[in-house]
Design goal:
Shape: globular
Strand order of the largest sheet: 2-1-3-4-5
CATH superfamily: Response regulator
CATH topology: Rossmann fold
Largest sheet: 5 strands, parallel
Number of domains: 1
Distance between the termini: 22 Å
Strand content: 15-25%
Number of strands: 5
Helix content: 40-55%
Order of helices and strands: EHEHEHEHEH
CATH class: Alpha Beta
Radius of gyration: 13 Å
Number of helices: 5
Length: 135
């Protein structure tokens, strides 16, 4: 799969984490757009379609679950990967029930994240937006 053809929206309120994640994905060949919060991300999603969204769970203003819910209204078939330092299985389950492709705990392994992105894009091309398991 050629990552250069795929666009990713990274939603993260921590500027350092957002920059590192964006650079990592760009280095892997993805076309990366970033947003510092859920509202900015929704504005981006109104302007263009993304192949995948990677979002933090704990953000200022709008949390990741609320963002997930609203993003699914705009683009229901776009996979959303939720990242969080929160180890709560209850929150992860809520995200999965809310339509997240998967949940990945921080700190995450870059190789695992890239594998998840490839899998999510492959699933979305075949009409599925859930991985069915969290990491």
């Amino acid at each position: 799969m050629n990552e250069e053809n795929h666009s990713v929206l990274v939603v993260e309120d921590d500027e350092a984490v957002r920059s590192i994640l964006a650079l990592s994905l760009e280095h892997a060949g993805y076309n990366v757009h970033t947003a510092s919060d859920g509202l900015e991300a929704l504005d981006e999603m109104k302007q263009r379609r993304f192949d995948i969204v990677v979002t933090d769970y704990q953000m200022q203003g709008m949390d990741g679950l609320r963002f997930l819910s609203l993003s699914k209204i705009l683009w229901p078939n776009t996979p959303v990967v939720m990242l969080s330092a929160d180890q709560s299985e209850e929150v992860a389950d809520r995200a999965m029930r809310g339509g997240a492709f998967t949940w990945l705990h921080k700190p995450y392994d870059r190789t695992v994240l890239l594998q998840i992105l490839r899998l999510a894009i492959r699933h979305s091309l075949h009409g599925s937006t859930h991985a069915g398991a969290n990491q």
